[in-house]
Structure formats: C-alpha cells, structure tokens
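Re: beginner question about structure tokens

> Can someone show what the tokenized structure looks like for a real chain? I only ever see the sequence side.

Sure, here's an example I had lying around. Input first:
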Amino acid sequence: GTGLATRVLAQQAPGGFVFGIDLSDRLIDKALRGYRNPPNAFFLVADAARIPCASGFFDTLLSVEYIYYYPDLEAALTEVFRTLRSGARAFFLTNYYRENPYGHDWAKSIDIPVHLLGAEEYTALLSSIGFRSARHRRIINSTPIPEDWAPTRWFPTRQDQAKFQAEGALLLTAEK
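And the corresponding structure tokens:
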C-alpha cells in the first residue's frame, strides 16, 4: 500500500527497522515520495512469494488488507514463514473473508483475482505451513457512523455500512 502502517510502526519503534513490502511499484513509489517517512522506515517492491531478505530476518509481520491478493497464497505464506525468526509473531488483518458477506461484492469490481477464505481455512493453512498457535478473532468496528455519512459504491445505505462494521475485521495471529 502507501505505507501508512509502516510509518506508524516506525514511529512507535524508533530503535528498530520497519519494512513495507508491496508488489506494486506505483504504490511503493507513492509511499516513498508522497509522505514524510521516519528514517527507520524502508519500502521494497517485492512479490510476497519471493521476499528479498535472509531467512529469520524479521521479528514481527503485520499484513493489513493484503493476504487475499497473494496469487499463490501457500507460496507467499511459506515465504513469510521463512523470513521470520524463530519465535516471531505474524498478524494478518482483513475485511475480506468468507464469514463477512458484506465485503464480498467488493471483489467483483476489481480486475485482480483474490482469495476468499474463511477464518478456519486461514488458520488451517497457517498451521500446515508450520506456524504454531494459529488463531483468529474478529475485531468489531464500533466507530459511530458519522452524521454526514453519504452512500458509497460499497455501502449504498447507512444500514449496509452498519452491517459491515458489525461483522468486523478478521485478525489472524500465528507464531513461528
């Protein structure tokens, strides 16, 4: 993406290094040029199935709204596993998952193939790759819908927006 999570995490961990990785050179270019980045924030254009880092390089992984884009999901998660050090934690956050029907229409409007898995499918896949303690939970969005809310392409009614928020995001966690 455009590096928002990378910048926030880099500010929270001034003694560490934070890497943002995306397959899109356009988005990485935007992350590099369009924002003031902390000196410990780095951005790489890379395929998640071929991360240009040594085995055991990362202490923690945070993937926000990206897991469904991996063309070869198993290969990408295997590569993530390789780049994590022993004992490292991985966090994957997504609003696009089988149990949230209010997010399914979104995929029909983009010209990119995506994976629609359920929570148990994700945790089973993480476990099959070698991750330990693979778990999932939903994070409900309790943010009030603003008074000046207006219909969008994805949420044509206020009720649609409320239903989507009530389903919440899916958080997957696992350890190496």
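Each token stands for a local structural state, so reading them left to right follows the chain. Strands lie at 18-22, 41-45, 58-64, 84-94, 132-139, 169-175.
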